[in-house]
Amino acid sequence: MKYLAAYLLLALAGNETPSAADIKSVLSSVGIDAEGDRLDKVIAELEGKNLQELISEGSTKLASVPSGGGGAAAPAAAAAGGAAAPAEEKKEEKEEEESDEDMGFGLFD
Fold first, then answer.
1. One-character DSSP codes across 28-76
2. Helices and strands (DSSP H and E) totals, the chain
3. Would you give the DSSP letter of residue 7?
4. Separation between Cα atoms, residue 20 and residue 11, nearest integer Å
5. pTM of the predicted model, to two decimals?
6. SS3 helix, strand, coil % of the chain, rounded to 5?
7. Which of 18, 24, 42, 77 could form a disulfide with 10 if both were Cys (CB 3.0 to 4.6 A apart)?
8. How do residues 25-84 score in pLDDT, each as one tens digit?
C-alpha cells in the first residue's frame, strides 16, 4: 500500500511514470525502506495504465461491496427479547457508572 501511495503522490505531482528510484526517494524521505521485489511488482502492474481509469474502476467495485455495521441486528434482538433487553441495558449502565466512580475521576473533569 505504501508503494502505491508513493506512486500516486508522484503521479499527482506531475510525474506520469514514476521509476523505482523516484518511489524509493519518496519513501526514504519519511523513513521507510523500500523492498525491491514489491516495488518492482507495483511498477510492473501499473505500467502503461491510466491511473484515473483505475481509480474510477476501483470505486465502482468498492460501491458494490456491502459495508453494513450490523445496525439492523440490534433492533431485531430487542424485538425478539421483548422487555428483557431494556432491563439488561439498565443493569449494564449501572455497572459502567460504578466502574467510573472507582477510578476517582470522570471523563470531563
1. HTTT-PPPHHHHHHHHHHHTT--HHHHHHHHHHHHHTS----STTHHHH
2. 6, 0
3. H
4. 13
5. 0.53
6. 65, 0, 35
7. 18
8. 999 999 988 888 888 898 888 888 888 888 888 888 888 888 776 655 555 555 555 555
